[in-house]
Sequence to fold (1057 residues):
Amino acid sequence: MKAPRQGLRLLSRDWRAGELRLLATAVVLAVTAITAVAWLADRVAAGTEGRAAELLGGDRALVSNSEIGPEPETVALDLGLETTRTLEFTSVVLSGDDTQLTAVKAVGGAYPLRGRLEVGDHLDAEPRVADGIPQRGEIWAEPRVFLQLDLEPGDPLELGASTFTLSQVLFLESDRGGGFQGLSPRVMMHLDDVSDTGLVGPASRVTHRLLVAGEPQSVSQWVERVEPGLGDGAGIEEPGREQPGVAQAMDAAERFLGLSALLTVVVGGVAMLLSIRHYAARHLDRVAVMRCLGATQRQIVALLTWKMIWLGLFAALIGTALGFLVHLLMLALLVDLLPSLPAPSLRPALVGLLSAQIILLGFAVPTVLRLKRVPPLRVLRRDLGDHVYRGASVYVAALAAVFALMLWQARDLLLSVYVFGAVLGTLSALGMAAGGVIWVLRRQRGQRSSASLLLSGLTRRPWTAVIQIMALGLGLMALALLTVVRNDLLATWQDRVPENAANYFLINIQDDEVDGLRAMLDDAGLETSVYPMVRARLVGINDQDIRPSDFEEPRTRRLVAREFNLSWLERLPEDNRIVAGEFWNKNPSDPEQFSLEEEMAERLGVGVGDRLAFEIGGERYSAPVTNLRSVQWDSFNVNFFAATAPGFLDDAPATYITSFYLPSGQSRLLGQLVREFPSVTLIDVNAILDTVRGIMDQGARVVELMALLTLLSGLVVLLAALQVTREERQFESALLRALGARRALIRRLAATEFLLLGAVAGLLAGAGAGTAGVFMARQLFELEYTFNPWLPLIGAAVGAGVVALAGLLATRRLYRVSPMRLLQEADDG
Amino acid sequence: MVDAASASVVRTEGLGMVFRGPDGDIRLFQDIDLAIERGETLAILGASGCGKSTLLGLLAGLDVPTEGRVVVGDAELTALDEDQRARVRGEQIGFVFQAFHLLGGLTALENVMMPLELADRPEPAVAARRALEQVGLGERMGHYPKQLSGGEQQRVAIARAFVGEPRLLLADEPTGNLDRATGARIQDLLFELNRANGTTLVVVTHDPVLAGRCHRVLHLDGGQLVAA
Fold:
């Protein structure tokens, strides 16, 4: 027999007979979840990797914190390379009294050397490739700037001391980068306009870039000649190597989404196991007859395997198509965060095909293949081979498939083991709690005869009820975590921020501006402290030179690799506490002392008495640590990891920083500040928090989509359980009606069962999500989060509603058809 | 005896079956020597639980005896493994059951096609249609078992049993689930087709009327097969 053809034919007959539909639905949902993430990841990866040179704006870039001298450009021109310069900094733009912090990029004539800019004349315009760069006196801005300041093209916009015309909407800036790094909306201007704005001073935080492009060999020669002469704070960027942080974040996001997609597989897996067992039980006779009619075991195996392969193929096609639609929805949710992406590849479709087969191999094939053991003698003796499809190996295969998929998505054995353990642990906890509730209900049933009938729905089939509660509970728990608990955690964190915490920071204040600025803030009735800030790099501990590679922890490595802000303190800030050593007097006799924040000291492995060496502008400053401080960072006051006593850094180039609380409605002061002190950068904390919250909300909504798919899988478990118990229910319903029960009573009994089932699942999910929230708050975010007592109640209400609706819809026929017909059908099996 | 055995379609030698029960071994039957000739019809009668169906199952190679051997045509079933016995069944043996055993998800036509498809015979639908027409169900080929009466279902089962042109037809209480009139019509059909195809028929039954239409009637009594 031609097994593939026969398998397909048998599958189509099964399908017509209504068999395997729930199994297929569960597989489709699982593939939808997996491929939605695969489509998204594929396009984002292609969008960032595939256009590496475009992302850089050239073939190589020299990046520096300070102005780049003429030498590297001369070398490039000598080698026949194209060059251009860019300058990036953050600054506030003004429109009337409205302010907006923006990321400014000033670009030279030949920009971009690689990639392109897309602009439009108005917000709804079709983007077109820009012809050149902004003219002098003009600014191009991202749509967000127009929307947030309520501007039209042609409107004036103040930046520093200059007023520009907002001439074009900037739709695409290919070297903006592919990730989540751009918090502030972006504006672009001509490089020659920068000096007039007065925004860039000697100690300003500005990133200078020299872009080069040309023949690969010449580019390599340029790197060889220029790189050795680069000082601190300068380096060469290569396509594909820039922004490792973004690449890591994207990779982590992809893995997280991939693993959350697997919750759908786990929950759907329960539905698959239930429905395939039901299928196998119904097919015992069929296989026995086939064997009696001459089918060999090998034929049976080939037929059933091909049937599953075909089923997997069709489910994969539908699931992959649905996954594509879900990924479009995700892209719509993330539209502000992602650059425009290339067309999708076919790889996710392959992922869909493969995962469908792995899922069926794990959850369905082992049960189905056990049917080959049905003895042919069953055609004469119906009791033979009743349990051949049961066995521990079925569950081992299912767990192995889940673990294999987790390993595939996480690409990390340890992480897979943790996640696998967490999911199994959660399912077991839900199972045990569900078992406890059913046990209590059973006892109630015995004690109160009036409740007896109403409670009987759950207690008559305790195992089925426990399985349904576990599966629905997991889906509801994921949803509760992502919605209620997430908001609770954010609110808890916000509550910790004092009412009058600083909501504006001013940075880049120059030495000669300090007094004037302080006076202006005093006049406005604002209490402030102005702190000096020196950019320094940690270079030695106890007279030994240190390098980033000396440390294992990534955050410590970054700390050592980068310049950070060093200050001096005249007195201990109010939200700091000395935890070791002693703080200096106001006028210490020896200014050569360091004070360190305790966590930083711990990471560096230093304590009171150890000597630290910092390099500031080529000079080395070495002194012992005399005290450690604890800092309350979320007070939103200006605070420093490392500080010295006054007098030590007097020779170092410093800028100043201050923060203040300005009640809403007093934004006029901001306008004055920015106009009077154009080089000072104003940072609006609320705007940044809003942006961060916006990103979190957008990200969370994507994950919520995955949780919804998990809940849908939970409903498929409910339907699978209903299918398994259908004959029993049918018989019970018919019998009760034959005994005189009215249809309304039967419907009420079923409604009670579903309401109870959903309520218990939701209650446990809410309690579980709350407990997980408390755990996460303490362990991950160091927050004191109190368990939200509403969570179990909300969970119970949502669970009861959803499950009752789905359950009653699925069983409505049982209350419509005549009892006579139901009893006949029950007899027919 | 030797001659009879060599001309037989099915024969058994020293056939015995012992079951292991909770209180020790239970002997169902022993030392059964039986030879059934080509075209012969044989009825096996006996009380419920005496082992008639088990004997039928052994003749079909659905199970293996604890003693003795079974030979169908040239094949000694007791020397073959399960898959080899399945092949012999597919090629040489047809079945009719008391409970019909039609496959619920398949139409009448698909049910009849099943043994041909399993044996990978060419154009199974053509032969299956012909078989259904022979049993008078030419108009109901697309119906599912649920949409057919008991008598019609058994006629589909008979068509399925004959469609592969088996040498041996085994029937287990073929009219046990049918009313008297329908049962009589099914008997007529069974014997008519048996005659037309030259098949050897072994029928296990309680029904003395059905048994009376067979060439030979044997009783399974006290573990021994004896002539009526």
User: Anything to note?
Assistant: The beta strands of chain B are 8-21, 24-37, 41-45, 67-72, 75-76, 93-96, 168-172, 200-204, 216-221, 224-227. Chain B has one domain: 39-62+81-227.
